[in-house]
Design goal:
It contains 1 helix and 5 strands. It is α+β, with helices and mostly antiparallel strands and 66 residues long. It is globular and about 25 Å long.
Length: 66
């Protein structure tokens, strides 16, 4: 299960999960949202500025490329 941690935010991609391709975003041990990687939008929950920064950083690093 791919996991990335940056700036206190944990991003988890479960290998067997329903479409669309998405990640689960955790802060302080709690899931704050699910984020759709295909459409680059929040599926549910709240995405704060730090979590958004982490997702953008990971995208620039190419970790979400298939």
């Amino acid at each position: 299960m791919p996991r990335w941690k940056r700036l206190g935010t944990l991003i988890v991609l479960y290998p067997i999960d329903h479409p669309p391709r998405h990640v689960h975003v955790f802060q302080k041990g709690r899931r704050v949202c699910r984020f759709d990687l295909e459409n680059w939008r929040v599926m549910d929950g709240l995405l704060g500025p730090t979590a958004r920064e982490v997702l953008e950083l990971l995208r620039r690093e190419g970790v979400f490329d298939e």
